[in-house]
Queue: 4 jobs
Job 1
Amino acid sequence: MQKDCYVCYRTNECTDNRTTTGDLMEVILLGTGSPMPDAKRGGPATLVKAGATQILVDAGRAVVMRLTGAGSLPIFLSGVLITHLHSDHLTDLNDVITTHYIMSQAETPLHIYGPPRTQEVVNGILASLAPDISYRLAHHPDTLWWQPKIIVTEVTPGMSFTLGEAQVSVGETNHAPVEPTVSYRIEHEGKSVVLGGDGIPCETLDAICKGADAYVQTVIRAELVGLVKNKRFLDILDYHSTVEQAAQTATRAGVKKLILTHYVPSIQPGQEEEWRALAAAHFAGEIVLGDDLTATTI
């Protein structure tokens, strides 16, 4: 039984599925959707498992539900990495913070890393939770006497740090006018995965992807987006990678596996091979895409 596991505490039976075997890494697409609500797809979020270390990258809608579906929980996370401060990548950071807080059996920090102004976002979330926190403190004075302990580290390109058994490097991306935006390269036992976040191809993205075992990129289908005659929607064309561009980035960087997510528009049933073919025209390695909770090992 894990001493910090709420499930164990409640049932005396551990269902913790937090580890991977040996030197393997596992990448799980928790949420593959976009800002447009989709009943079958959560918002942008990816879970990386590296040995006993679990790292959440972005926290879109339904992220805690998808974490549960992946055999995880916020209390199992070594850290949360935020690529940028667009709302669709943040909507359920509130839920991650709250669930981590109420399931912890002792004062336990939650580490959040993100670009400048991440502290401002977290401060706002905690302010919105102030009534809830006060109710819980009043209701459980003998077992809950601490506030949520959130440790925010604002990152810039070129930084690196350790999370559990993994080493994390920060890269620069181009999602202008959203600035700054970052990518993360997570390394463990000789394996590596890059989480590119949103953005268009750029030299700094190529650099952090160089030689990676896997590269996760949010993608759009420009020819399908272009069919929607709405100016605000069409504006997304100038700051997201297309499927083809993501594949070209992977090829330039010598990546072994390309993982596509955050599909705009959503992949419809039966369209998977069509999307895969667009990438395969520019990338000869393995291409992974699919529904929420699609997982791959590297």
Job 2
Amino acid sequence: MSWNGDVVIDLDSHVVERADRFYGDYIDPAYRERYQQLCEAVAQQAKAGHRYSLFGSRTSVIEPIETGRPLGVRDTFGLTRRSGMEGGRLAFPPGRTEALPPIRAEASWDVKVRIEDMDRAQVDVGVLYPTHVSSYCALRDGEFENALYRAYHRWVADFCAQAPTRLTWTIVANMRDVAAGVAEIKHWANDGNLAGIYISPQAPDGKLLDSPHLYPLYEVAQDLDLPVLAHGGTARPPYGPGTFDLDGAWFLLHSFSNPWAGMAALGALIGGGVFDRFRSLRAAIIETGGGWLPLALDRLDTHYIMSPAHVPNLGRLPREVLAEGRYFHAIDTWERSVEFCVEELGEDLWLFATDWPHGDTAWPESVQQITDRPRLTETARRKLLGENALRLCPRLKPIADVHRAPRRPR
């Protein structure tokens, strides 16, 4: 079909949601007044000449934070801001001589545009994540937080239902009010386009993914055969490692905070014994890069041998946990280390992930960036582009079967 008769599944595509524009028909009536207050704050933000931002910048309406300081500049007087990644069309990979085509913002709300642009990129199925929804945990009003999750889930389920053989979605688990998160997952459990459970690489209030308060989320994921998908996010709640250690410098925050968060998430899941406690749980780490994983496993293995008392729930080397086949990892298609990573850790855990339509994507060349790798075998390409995603997310199999071309007998 899209590539050599095999289905291509993008395990990290996005909608860039606007709470003020998307949720009007989906918010619970009891929270409409609070919702209108949020919309008014966004309107005032725009009136002041600022970009839409609920979190992650100095002008955010819910939780402002400095993320725009240029390195080498000590005082900015409010004149700099978080990057809009304006140079992204020339960056993936570095050294390109021609810019990639513009990304159409309409792909976040117009299904026709989205499918056209997926076709252009040779992607059959997209697994959709929101851009900022997991940061609703910054709200002081936990009930309004839950209401916004519900509104987003209703909106995205309707969005995907317009193209049910092309678009699937991830449900955002409330990691602060876990009981509410579990109830919401169960509510949507029978939706045919639900692919997995979105969690952040860390929980609110400084907790990591080994925290026992998250066990009910892992249990419901296991019971419903849904994967847990830990997805990164830069300098927004729940804040990851490094957010407050890099002095508001965007160059460092966006370069390193997601990989750093991914390392902590990997270590907490494995070292905390989560895979041992939940014996059929599948999990993946998304949008943190992939080139760091071989290094991280070397260090985790040595520290398991050196300091076993600090991982009392872990009974074997961390890389042996990965070898069981229940952990998966998204790698950016433009990373120079793709072939090395596959050679070092095998073909069976890597996921094709584009991050489209965000600014740091190689769309529409992402598939080609994988298929043109001379050291990847055809089997490795097939697994990376889709087969591994189907093992991680078995609910995608009926959708994938629609796209898979029949193979001729040899």
Job 3
Amino acid sequence: MVSNHNIYIDMYKLCTYNRHYMRQIDKLVQNHFSKQRLVLELLGARQVGKTTLLKRIFPNAQYFLLDNEPVRKSFETFDQFSYKQIFSNVSKTIILDEIHLLSNPGRAAKIIFDQFPDKNLIITGSSALNIKNKTAESLAGRKIEYHLYPLTFAEYLEQTGGQTHRYNIAETLTTGVISFSSKTLLFDLRASLERILTTGLYPYLIEHPQDTDYLLNLSDSVIFKDILELNLIENRRVALDLLTLLAHQIGNLISYSELSRTLGMDSRTIRKYIEIFEQSYIIFRLYPFSKNARDEIGKSPKIYFHDVGLRNALINDFSSPFLRRDGGAIFENFIVSEFYKLNDYLKTGFDLNFWRTSQGSEVDLVLSKGSSSPIALEIKLSKGNTSRAFANRYPNAKLEVVTSQNFY
């Protein structure tokens, strides 16, 4: 048995990013227990700030880092009486950080939720695959899931002291009305965008903006830490090769059979690894918008990275996005990921898709919700045109071109 003193240490000191700035998700997390006692589950990739956020919002919580082996062993007992010995009588809130590392995270959480009704339980993890597979039955009806991603552009501006305005992307999502117009700014939008499109939006980089070694280490080892510890992949090198290949194909249609031939892997393994990357919050898939017209592509997805800095690290290219051939693809990834993050944070309920026909007509991003008119967005680094083909097919659609000059 590990003593209460040894477990209840401030493991937050391990976090290298300690500035206490607000995040878009703060209010949702802060108000969670005022509405219900259900387990608060916070999921997101390593290094996106889950621990820092929870420490700031719940400063008096009793914190257990399950990446620490003695701590993990104490929770592997799955015994309420053992748990009682290590829980503080003072703190009402318990945080189990990186709970996916337990052999049965759902069982541990269920014991605490059921047997300690005076406690509020928060669990975090960076592998949704392991948590969902092993907690689905145990925590059914007992938890609410939240996600934390790398910073949004608005969060970046707030944390770097830049001028903040109403964010055009957030305005479009919250109102359902296209809101992309240039505005007079007191900061250099192009310089801020260049920095973000180069090194991304991981919180650590706010204070270390030129530390590309951090991203290289993140891409080579940190993001694989949980995947390897949980034995989710058989071959780390092949998995890294696949992830690197995907990094070269952002914004393009993905062919599982083509990836299979290139890497010499069977298609089922390719699909499995991509699912693991997605559930580890490294990438996400965007699927086609289709109303079942014969010429509309309806199956093959596109793949984007949650952070373009991590993507650039995978291909080891940190040159200026305004001077490289894939600059447009990087900007498209950035804009799509901003919509993805804010649609989740703001709970606006849009489906995010792309549109393409067999004749080659396409729209980079389509926002749709129920019977409302779809919003079709072309995403171009400098300038471009809306899709006449989409307008003809969907005459009630709202169309706009999002560029580096008007996205904010």
Job 4
Amino acid sequence: MRWLTDPQLPWPPLHGRRRRRLWLPPGRSIASTISGRLIVAGWLLSGILFGNAALYGQDQQGAASVQPVITTDRPAVTDSSIVVPSGYLQFENGFTETGNQGQQGFDFPETLVRFGLTSKTELRFTPPDYFQNFNTGSGFGTGWGDLSLGVKQQLFATSGGFDASLVVSLSFPTGANIISSHGYDPEVQLPWSHPVSKNWTAAGMFSLLWPTEGASRNFTGQASFLLDRQITSRWDAFIEYAGEFPERGGSQDLLHVGTSFKLTPNQQLDFHFGFGLSSAAVHDFVGFGYSFQLQAIHRQKRDGS
């Protein structure tokens, strides 16, 4: 998830893809948080309405043919081990509220745009996220974060169900002065998954990051592992451990639980929450999201590249 893997932010909380440590500074009115929730609720409703309008025609056409079911990188820290289908455009969005030391903060829209370039390659664009009451380490700030570009390559998709891919991305210092890392920060991720039974799947991800912190980089490793339970054909739930291990600073560990429900083959709602397991991690966080995909380019079956 974005919130774990954004290299310019101090860690958590967490997806589908950022790391942040958010809370209200002393003396800050809680009214700003309530107002922010209303803004996010309006944004999410608008997104669902837009998604439904954009997908209505495709869902009608797809009733007579087999459609690829949406598979997202959120809400887990662990990314999906497969790429977006060739010619498809996918939008993943969300909101996370974080609590630490009795204070609150939030960020949205956590957007990740994924495009299936071929059957094994996708292009990725992460627009800037908006942070409210963000603790930068040197003070509290509000503003937009950095954007990033990336590519995801399918490495394995075996008949036995083992899937793995490689994600390479680079963030650009486009954010607000108090939020941005002010550096070009690379990141490499290796998500994998394997079914262990009819309804259970094990998955995980290994990541290497080189975030800019001050005048130097702080080489950081990340690892996550989850178990996912398919409850019905449309509904699943997971439990996950995620840890970050920086070269400078203490390790940060999280316990993460979430669920997702597919409204249609092209639309998904999700909900997740978690807790810090170490002193360096945030105390708790909760979030939700809405994602959808649409077929942007119609290609012939012979496209197997």
